Amino acid sequence: MELIARGRDADVFVLDESRVLRRRRRGSPAEWEARVMAHVAAYGYPVPKVYEINGPDMVLERLTGPTMLDVLARRPWRVGSLSRTLGGLHDRLHTVPAPEWLPRRFATAGDDRVLHLDLHPGNVMLTRRGPVVIDWSNAGAGDPAADVAMTLVTVGSAEVPGLAARLGRGLLVRGVRKGSRSDPAGRLREAAEAKLADPNLTSAEAAWLRRRTGDRSGRPGR
User: CA-CA distance, 78 to 160, in Å (whole number)?
Assistant: First the structure.
């Protein structure tokens, strides 16, 4: 099988013209993630179609088009419109009620919306049918503002080379905040603390996050 994408947690292989195989590298079952995708798809949210699940493997619809991240790298002048699209994807997702079986994260009384919790430009495919959101392995239920906050700390902490790219990242962060109805301000520190638990962080990413949590100890990410 041809490897066409390699994420932090999974690899994607071509099966044929219409299907791909997404394989979790650590061998954890894919059934729960497929269940989340089926739930949000029932409310009309754009996700790839799931054809089959077998342990850590998921056979998915093959999407044609670049990621939002790819477009930002090639056409940085589109950062304004794409950041608004990303904010809109948050708002659209946060109309979906969370099922009882979805783990509560960043929740207070009455917070029962589906959260993606990794909704950044690398997880949005720009296809002919519109943007499609992939990689639902971190999904939970809770406060929509926390979902936007997780996007902001993920984008903000990411290592990007060059001044122009860093300026573009700043514009993206501001655009997402303006493009979403949820105000992430009260959840940013909590989101940074949660992001520090990601075992895939680089030392530079962890350092950026620690600064946002007020931790100046220099410890590696947890």
Answer: 17
Buried b (16+ CB within 10 A) or exposed e, 181-218: ebebeebbebbbbbbbebeebeeebbbbbbebbeeeee
Report the C-alpha gap between 116 and 138 in whole angstroms.
Answer: 6
Q: What is the pLDDT of residues 70-87, one digit of tens each?
A: 999 889 899 999 999 999
pLDDT, tens digit, 9 for 90 and up, residues 31-63: 999 999 999 999 999 999 999 999 999 999 999
CB contact at 8 A, 160 and 119: no
Distance CA 5, CA 21 (A): 10
| Number of folded domains that form the chain | 2
144 and 190 assigned to the same domain: yes
Spatial distance between the Cα atoms of 78 and 64, rounded to a whole number of angstroms: 20
Indicate which CATH number applies to the domain containing 80: 1.10.510.10
In this prediction the pTM is 0.90
